[in-house]
Specification:
Elements (H helix, E strand, L loop, with lengths): L4 H4 L49 H4 L21 H8 L5 H8 L32 H18 L10 E4 L2 E5 L5 E5 L5 E9 L4 H10 L10 E6 L3 E8 L4 H11 L5 E5 L6 E11 L2 E8 L2 H13 L10 E2 L3 E2 L15 E9 L4 H7 L9 E4 L8 H13 L4 E6 L7 E8 L2 H7 L6 E2 L5 E2 L1 E13 H20 L3 E6 L3 E8 L2 H16 L1 E2 L1 E2 L2 E2 L10 H13 L2 E5 L4 E5 L5 H15 L3 E5 L2 H19 L4 E4 L4 E5 L2 H11 L4 H9 L18 E3 L5 E3 H9 L1 H4 L6 E2 L2 H4 L4 E2 L1 H7 L2 H17 L5 E3 L8 E3 L11 E2 L6 E2 L12 H7 L1 H13 L2 E3 L6 E3 L6 E3 L6 E3 L5 E2 L2 H12 L8 H4 L1
Keywords: Metal-binding, Repeat, Transferase, Ubl conjugation pathway, Zinc, Zinc-finger
GO cellular component, one term: ubiquitin ligase complex
Pathway: Protein modification; protein ubiquitination
């Protein structure tokens, strides 16, 4: 049979139906041009890949194309070539036979390049064989991504409350029964960065090294963060010991160790008082300008003082024009240099030509200009070296920065000290004269700073208010900075005015904490918000609609609002309406033919009579009865349709019986009853009141004791149980009262900041401390003496007491007249009006003898003391009634 010449050229369209022989000539095949198959009978022919469509298959890109190479669109491969592909590519320069072999290899299914999306699922891929790629690395990556998604989905699980709260500037951990188990202040810790460890040093080895230096500390309360490089290991240590960092640095230095330590201050609440600003006047000179006309001299002086004339862009001060004294008897009345003004604060680098150029009006030009000497001739860098030497005499510097040259009149330097004490000490350099400045004076100012870190979305929600506040801060000489990135933004305000920085800090705290949404004094909340369900998604819709941020706290059962105040009530209204709708579940009853006929013939009226209006709705199209109500109403509707009696239906609607019994607080039938785990029933209001007053009723540590069984129940209610029965606001109040009671009973250990409306606490100095550490409140920035608890600045306690003795003595006289004495333990004023001489301090619960002010732990020893030391308890005047 004759060979088909069209087939040899790759252009035969007849396929197997061609009457000529189709035979592949390997010697001439390389020159053949294969054609695209267009008939089913020609599928066996080689297909020219070059003539395939160039449009990319969108399903292949998504990994969903199931047609493989039969797809009419392009399947691109962007991954790295396989080893086989590289081998084939390298063989193209070899023999022709290899080329022919590669040409007729069956093309690989393009789906094999796409990772199988079923492989990462729990059941795995069940296709055998599967046309998609099964790669272990991709499988692991997919599993990691799946875990991330699951982690996001697990966010709707209820968070376990560890009962740790931040109150009064401290971190408080409550025990299972509500008393304070641990209280930590930022000042209780110290942090140090230790360098010089050998690369690969472990935490255990670091602990052994520190113990070898004589440090004994609790490993559990020590945090070690390692930073390892190729040459050494650096460790950041945080230890529950305020003096650890400084002592470690001193010991390593004294022992000439290869290790070195640098204390790192722990900024409480992102507040700092370790920075100082130093400035001094730039070099200046004076100039004398002579005029032949007094009016012109006055005009030029006025223009310089008003800033209309400036020298090299700087404002210059001018003296009043003065008339020169005439010399000699024959001096002329018209003297061309009779009027002189003196210009001061001229930049030191200015020349006579610069002064001339400053006077822009031709008519104001002086007759003569004489320049004075420059105030000092050293450079700013040389002065900064002298200043740094003076600062380092007061303490170790963390940083020292000379500001770039500016057009201002002063040279500025910012310095950070390692300790706040050193920064305050350095302020004594203020107004000190320096010889290097030609007796010019330094200005040294302590700078307080406060900063908060918030999510960028919260910053954007508050941006309008922040911009308005920033204008006020600028007027009060405060600087404000925003460091913003995609996820978080840091807001920082700093200045030398303690009150203004404290006021700005309060505003920043309000911005970072947000506002708890309440409706009628009750927190806006529903149990439907515990999960990421419909209610949570609707909450996000409200958030987006109002362009605000609404955060939920599942542990506290609260919603926090971040945004303009005028939108908060709008948010409350929308969320309350949404939650009210969500709290009414919907039930559907599929009606069969008989039930549907019964409902249509009047049965719906019977259901409406039992359930009420607008509860049951008939959907005629789907033949369903929709119940918008409670589970009991749904069950009652089924009972009505099932022919139950009225009593049975009423029992279903009434639901389970409520806890029975009288409230042990008010002795009445419990209103809105709740039942404790020990089976005692309370009114909800009485139970809340009892929990809130438990702190004042507890003789020892805080506890909420059940008052059931006529007060004989010994059960102590746990915080988990209290959280079940109490609203979030009342529960947080209970924790706060427990904390406040804890502080009041320990006046020797903790005190509140004396600044009005501050509310932060601090740890008192130990009586054995000859020189207690200075303390600055991180909320109001007021320096407080932790020994005498007064604000006396640089004065000692004795000096301050001597200065304030006048007013102090007057106060003592008044208190003596009113029979008022201070508690010897916590200094709370007490007034005795009647009764015996046994007094109990309402603050610290100390038992006190009113005669000698002795303190006892219980009432019994106090009464025994009064009888033995004072001959009675102070009720001798009542003996006459006994006679």
């Amino acid at each position: 049979m004759t060979l088909c010449r069209y087939f040899q050229h790759g252009s035969c369209w007849n396929g197997d139906s061609c009457e000529y022989r189709h035979e592949r000539d390997l010697n001439t095949l390389r020159y053949a041009e294969p054609v695209v198959s267009c008939l089913p009978a020609i599928e066996g022919l080689f297909i020219n890949q070059q003539v395939r469509p160039t449009a990319i298959c969108k399903y292949f890109v998504q990994g969903k194309c199931t047609k493989g190479d039969a797809c009419g669109y392009l399947h691109p491969f962007t991954g790295p070539p396989s080893q086989e592909a590289q081998a084939d590519a390298s063989s193209t320069s070899g023999l022709g036979s290899r080329q022919h072999t590669n040409i007729f290899q069956e093309p690989q299914d393009s789906r094999a390049r796409v990772p199988c999306r079923f492989l990462s699922r729990p059941g795995g891929c069940r296709n055998n064989p599967c046309p998609f790629l099964h790669a272990e690395k991709d499988h692991e990556a997919e599993r990691n991504n799946a875990r991330d998604v699951e982690a996001d989905e697990d966010d709707d699980q209820e968070c376990e409350d560890d009962f740790t709260r931040s109150l009064a500037g401290a971190s408080i951990h409550f025990s299972a029964f509500g008393d304070v188990a641990d209280l930590l202040l930022p000042a209780d810790y110290s942090r140090a960065c230790v360098t010089g460890f050998v690369a690969g040093t472990t935490n255990e080895e670091i602990v052994d090294i520190l113990r070898g230096l004589g440090f004994e500390f609790d490993v559990e309360s020590t945090h070690i963060l390692l930073h390892t490089t190729s040459s050494e290991t650096k460790a950041t240590l945080k230890v529950k010991d305020p003096n650890f960092a400084k002592e470690l640095a001193t010991r390593l230095k004294n022992q000439h160790s290869t290790l070195s330590a640098m204390p790192i201050p722990i900024e409480a609440g992102q507040a700092s008082c370790r920075k100082v600003y130093i400035s001094w006047h730039k070099a200046t000179k004076s100039a004398w300008l002579n005029f032949g006309n007094g009016k012109i001299a006055y005009t030029v002086a006025e223009k310089f003082n008003k800033g209309e004339y400036k020298c090299r862009g700087q404002s210059v001060k001018s003296s009043t024009a003065k008339q020169s004294q005439r010399r000699g008897r024959g001096a002329l009345v018209h003297n061309p240099v009779a009027w002189t003004i003196t210009l001061s604060d001229i930049p030191g680098y200015a020349t006579q030509e610069d002064v001339k150029a400053a006077i822009t009006s031709f008519h104001d030009a002086p007759r003569h200009i004489e320049m004075g000497p420059v105030s000092y001739s050293v450079s700013d860098a040389e002065v900064s070296v002298e200043v740094r030497t003076l600062l380092e005499k007061h303490g170790q510097l963390e940083s020292f920065r000379l500001a770039p040259a500016s057009e201002g009149k002063r040279v500025k330097v910012s310095a950070w000290f390692g300790e706040e004490t050193d920064a305050r000490s350095a302020c004594s350099l203020n107004n000190q004269s320096l010889d290097i400045l030609g007796k010019g004076k330094l200005t040294v100012v302590l700078v307080q700073s406060a900063k908060v870190k918030v999510r960028t979305t919260i910053y954007l929600a508050w941006k309008k208010r922040i911009d308005e506040e920033a204008k006020t801060w600028k007027e009060n000489y405060l600087t404000f900075h925003v460091y913003q990135d995609a996820s978080h933004s840091t807001l920082k305000v700093e200045g030398s005015s303690t009150k203004e920085v404290a006021r700005a800090r309060k505003i920043l705290n309000e911005i970072s904490e947000g506002v708890v949404l309440t409706d009628g004094g009750t927190s806006v909340w529903s149990s439907t918000l515990d999960s990421n369900g419909v209610a949570y998604r609707n909450l996000k819709v409200v958030e987006k609609e109002l362009q605000v941020v609404i955060d939920r706290s599942k542990s506290k059962r609260q919603l926090r609002f971040y945004g303009p105040p005028e939108k908060s009530q709008q948010a409350v209204h929308l969320i309350s309406a949404m939650l009210e709708k969500e709290c009414q579940p919907t039930y559907e009853i599929d009606l069969d033919r008989n039930q549907f006929a019964w409902v249509m013939k009047g049965g719906s009226k019977g259901i409406e009579q039992v359930l009420g209006n607008d509860v049951a709705v008939l959907d005629v199209v789907s033949k369903k009865m929709v119940i918008r109500g409670t589970q009991q109403q749904y069950d009652a509707a089924l009972a009505v349709m099932g022919g139950s009696t009225d009593n049975e239906i009423r029992e279903i609607l009434d639901g389970p019986s409520e806890p029975e019994g009288n409230c042990p607080i008010c002795f009445c039938e419990a209103d809105a009853p709740i039942q404790t785990w020990c089976k005692h029933t309370y009114c909800l209001e009485c139970f809340e009141g009892a929990c809130q007053s438990a702190a004042s009723m507890s003789k020892g540590e805080f506890q909420v004791k059940c008052q059931g069984a006529d007060g004989t129940c010994s059960t102590i209610l746990s915080l988990h149980e209290l959280k079940t029965h109490l609203s979030s606001s009342v529960f947080e109040t209970v924790l706060k009262t427990s904390f406040e009671e804890y502080i009041q009973r320990r006046p020797d250990t903790f005190r509140y900041c004396p600044t009005p409306d501050c509310g932060c606490i601090y740890r008192c100095a130990i009586a054995s401390d000859a020189k207690p550490r200075p303390y600055t409140c991180r909320n109001c920035f007021e320096p407080i003496c932790t020994s005498c608890h007064a604000r006396h600045g640089d004065y000692s306690c004795a000096e301050y007491k001597d200065i304030a003795s006048g007013g102090y003595e007057a106060l003592q006289r008044l208190k003596s007249e009113l029979n008022i004495k201070d508690c010897p333990k916590c200094t709370t004023p007490m007034e005795k009006t009647e009764g015996c001489n046994h007094m109990t301090c309402v603050a610290c619960r100390a038992h006190i003898c009113w005669v000698c002010m002795s303190v006892f732990k219980a009432s019994g020893p106090c009464y025994a003391h009064m009888r033995e030391a004072h001959g009675g308890i102070g009720l001798d005047h009542l003996n006459r009634f006994a006679d």
